[in-house]
Amino acid sequence: MIGPMSSASAPASSLLIACLCAQWCGTCRDYRPLFEQLQAEFGAARFVWVDVEDEADLVDPIDVEDFPTLLIASGDQARFFGTLTPHLETLRRLVQAQLDSPSPTHPDAKVQALVQRLLARA
Question: What predicted TM-score, i.e. pTM, was given to this entire model?
Fold first, then answer.
């Protein structure tokens, strides 16, 4: 089993994991408890649930059409942004991979700007 404790090259405290979903989305409602479960496993990371309709100003100008969409940042740099199958193990492996060997910086300036807005939130 992959767990949050490893000889990670990126500390968990530097990770931001944001799930961009919508209240009306049944898949998102089913996924949220799994997302929260993983939050308990990786307690040092910052997990954020963003309803793209309730917080449209935060997400704009990014148009999220597929759910769940995940954003992972290490420090202040986006490393992953995309739709993810709503399975706990898939998310767990992705988070652990970012801890073990962070991906290159995501090239989209809009995604990088979203990271900055999320980090600025209390």
Answer: 0.85
